[in-house]
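name: query_chain
kind: protein
chains: 1
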Amino acid sequence: MNFATMRIQPFFLSILLLLTVFINLSCEKEKTPEDQPEIPADSGKYIVTYNQSQLITSLNGYRFEAAFGTAEPLGYPYLWLQFADDYNDSIRLVLLNQNLAKTITKYMAANCYNGSISRKFEHGTFPNDVSNSMSFAFDHPGFLLFWYDKVNSTITQTGTVFGINAQIPQIFTGMQQQYTYRFLNRFLIRYISGISLWPFNYGNWNDEAQFVATSELSAPKAIGHYYDETWSTFPYDVSHNMYSGFFQSTNEATYAGIAKGTVNLDTIWLNNHPPDWYNAQYCQAFMDKAGDTLYLGTLINVPNSIQMVASLYRLIEGSGQMEALYSDIPLTFSASFFRKGCYYSTNGNGKLVKINHSGQEEILPLPQTSTSVNVRFTRNRIVAVSTSNDGKRLEVFSKPY
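structure:
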């Protein structure tokens, strides 16, 4: 055996190994920016605003209010409208913007009118993954936003006061899991039972006394409330500034009525069917006020069935007498909102439907856009929302009822 050959072999093996590695590296595909998407650095800006529509094809009587987009479409791609209200003919909105991992949620509160955004604030973060269980209310004169987070038991005030950003959460433990509630300007109203209400004044951070909403001796089959938030007397006595409309069935009679505080203003007799013919799980009552007219709407199951019928009553304040505008109209859609004595909803075809004071259904036009349109209802306006197909742009339109 040639010992010189044995000494040379390891040298050639090393050279061959190096050549193989070099060839493999040379044959690898060069990675492009598309192969390695880079999430942008956090700019601190999440929601941007626009003053022109890109989605609208026909307004159909609506007014374009504002458009929004996400400033970081890779880092924070999820944008949606969470809450809407109106004030002095303008629209006030709360928009949420969530990051790609769905672990951080940012928000913006904005005042919009005719394509212009006159006021807005965005600072701090928003409770993540609980927005569907939260309620909101604006303190309109101060342009402050309050939200109640039932999951984390907090009431938070946000806004900009004298140029200083403020986001102040406070723990609120006065809510039991079984309570239903309504969150209003200045008040969180807890429904303890069918007729017992318990207001919490979060402006003063004080509980008010529980009270019974009507003079009924037992919980009605259905009850709805209207809160007059325009009263100015301190300390804003809820029990004397609230109207209730109810549908009741007892062994003596079946009737509908309207009350203010604990005083029944008037009732109207309907029939003498046994009370167990009406299912409280199905029955609903709605209450609203327009000028000096109180409207009570009831959705009641046909006795011993699940078929629903709608009725509408009114009482002109001070007249002391209720009257039926129509009774027992078969319901062809699920009513989701009641305003000025009219029921509103969207049917299965994406159309906005209204039942007017005569009990007739009307199809109301919506803005025509290049994408679908969703509807929200505020106190005085119908709000239509269109979102681009990629979800990165959101546009808002509105019209009065």
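note: Helices lie at 3-27.
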